[in-house]
Amino acid sequence: MGSLGNVTHVIFDLDGLILNTEILYDVAIQKILDRFDKTYTYDLKMKVMGMKYHKSMDLIQKELDIPITAEELVTESMCNLKELFIKCDKMPGAERLINHLRKHGIPMCIATGSSSKDFELKTHSHKDLVGMMEFTVRSDDPEVKHGKPHPDIFLVAKSRFQTPPASSANCLVLEDAPNGVKAAMAADMKCVMVPDPRLETIPPAHLVLKSLEEFSPQDFGLPPF
User: Residues 93, 78: one domain?
Assistant: First the structure.
């Protein structure tokens, strides 16, 4: 493959990219919907992935017309998720890539649709891995006015690196969700997508992989494994 640009900074999504949390959301939400004989379909999941959590619950409530509020959905689903998050595992290839980039001094950060409270729960057993990041940007950050698919979170991330990238094109975003890919492309950054294998429609990205285990850093001008 030819070079896809001179990347100097890497921005990671969290859910479904570094940590295997997406299935946990499915379990937590479906447990609530079972009371109303409703199903959290994959198509609906794709609509909300990457959104700020309250907005995603609002969309689920409206789409399925269930007789509880979005706020109640947030509260109950977070109760269901609390214990599940602590046990979440890493996604294939994530730890190897993060260790490799850290070894070579590549600036990295996490830009996630998770709130600070959720982030702490999810990363409880992965402090060493997350600690390799220069910083994290979360959905409740006051500078992130709009969640993905808007580019806000990635532009905020770009501005916070200790040594800023020369341009957005020097940033590589690693994402699993369509909304995240759209946000990265709207921020004029390079984007690699590692989608759920069930996803039928892949949004435009610079590269699509089955797993981070397939990622070749040299394709983006980064040091090879």
Answer: no
- Between the alpha carbon of residue 140 and those of residues 99, 194, 212, the distances in Å are 27, 25, 27
> Residue 2: pLDDT above 70?
no
Number of independent structural domains in the chain: 2
Tell whether 140 and 208 lie within a shared domain: yes
Rg (CA), the chain: 17
48 and 212 in contact (C-beta within 8 Å)?
no
The CATH number covering residue 194 comes to: 3.40.50.1000
Does residue 3 sit within a domain? no
Q: What is the pTM of this model?
A: 0.86
Please give the residue range of the domain that contains residue 50: 22-86
Domain final residue pick, 71, 86, 101: 86
In whole angstroms, give the CA distance from residue 18 to residue 95: 8
Closest to 17 in 3D by CA, of 97, 84, 83: 97
**What confidence tens digit (pLDDT) does each residue in 25-41 have?**
899 999 999 999 999 99
Instruction: Encode pLDDT of 57-95 as tens digits.
Output: 999 999 999 999 999 999 999 899 888 888 889 999 999
**In residues, how long is the chain?**
225
Torsion of CA 91, 112, 210, 7, to 10 degrees: -110
Positions marked catalytic = 13, 15
Residues 47, 206: contact at Cβ < 8 Å?
Answer: no
97 plus 117 within the same structural domain: yes
Element (H or E) spanning 97, and its range?
A: helix 94-103
